[in-house]
């Protein structure tokens, strides 16, 4: 069981997809206008990640190596479609607010990345826990960004008003929401400060001589993803080197 | 005609794919260090999205809809896009070597660019006709080209600036993107 808790710790802290690996930036920026949207997106991604990790790990000895990317994509896309229908049926409000970003879970680097680098090489149980860990790490990241944006942008957390709003007409003093934080520019700004904070922590840790995990992912261009899905050669052409 | 123009301007400027819809952030941050490469990437994206929006619209209208398989759209679209990108690459290599030399290295990076799938899905969601879908594709990808080239131009200047240590690299790029997004908010009154 040790291995399983280690996978969860790994996903939540050591290789947190949002803060450390910087993967899946598109949904991170797009849906974090409120904390509840962030959590909803994070949990949907977690469900897809756990299920796809499980199935890919089960099928890892059957899928031929040369067509593994198309196979992974079909598996992931099927689960995304299932999750999409479940959300549409049972949580229509969340379905409406996430909109097009639900089907776009398919192209989220985290999912294909975990399939390629972990689930296709490891047994079923650790793969499931790897999915849970990574998914929860992603959820925590999205929720954190969502909370910051919602508090500054509307003075509320999870839709509950925590800062009494100012009302100029009634002459009541209070919090004046900085609306730009729930508009697109706010997403870039919050993420910029988050990454800067993380750089600071990293450089402090490096000065103390601690080993700092390498940041991967989109910040340095997809080429450094370490994820062959990013290489783009999905279908085998027969002339790979 | 007027309607098509509104779709094109709307998708290129008002709802800019990078700065207001957050699709294609990876290449926007990763391949925007130099204006030349940014323009190459933007060109490749225009090329692929235009073809992809045409092909996905055709397949949706003439295969998925008559058969009642609309729910398979995500799976079908992503496989089509992946296959299409590789096919386009092979075709360009054989038929148009100069264009391949200009765009070739960027083509494989586009498969995982969520803007391509995003456009295909938006076309379905908004029930665009095939022509409207293609126009939406061109508009969106030109919006991407504009955003990435402006970003690369700014980044070339930022190189010479003295930036505090924590903000070097990605953070300052994101701050730049913030300011660009604020500027693009100004287009929202255009339509």
Brief account:
The complex is a heterodimer of chains A (241) and B (191). By secondary structure, chain A is mostly helical. Chain A has helices at residues 2-14, 25-30, 35-58, 68-90, 92-98, 109-119, 124-154, 184-207, 228-231; strands spanning 156-157, 160-161.
Question: Which key terms come to mind for this protein?
Answer:
heterodimer, A: 241 residues, mainly alpha, two-stranded antiparallel sheet, 2 strands, B: 191 residues, 8 helices, 0% strand, globular
Major pleated sheet of chain B:
none
Specify the number of helices of chain A: 9
Low-confidence runs of chain A: 216-232
Count the E strands of chain B.
0
Protein structure class of chain A: mainly alpha
Description:
The complex is a heterodimer of chains A (241) and B (191). Chain A is 59% helix and 2% strand. Chain A has helices spanning 2-14, 25-30, 35-58, 68-90, 92-98, 109-119, 124-154, 184-207, 228-231; strands at 156-157, 160-161. In chain A, a hairpin with a 2-residue loop joins strand 1 and strand 2 (160-161). Chain B has 191 residues and is an all-alpha fold. In chain B, helix 3 crosses helix 4 (73-95) and helix 4 packs across helix 6 (114-125). Chain B is globular, with a radius of gyration of 17 Å. The two termini of chain B are 15 Å apart. The model of chain B has no long low-confidence stretch (mean pLDDT 87). Chains A and B meet through helix 2, helix 4, helix 8 and helix 9 of A and helix 2, helix 4, helix 6 and helix 8 of B.
Task: Map the helices and strands.
The complex is a heterodimer of chains A (241) and B (191).
Chain A: H1 2-14, H2 25-30, H3 35-58, H4 68-90, H5 92-98, H6 109-119, H7 124-154, E1 156-157, E2 160-161, H8 184-207, H9 228-231
Antiparallel strand pairs in A: 1-2
Chain B: H1 2-14, H2 25-30, H3 35-67, H4 73-95, H5 97-103, H6 114-125, H7 130-158, H8 170-185
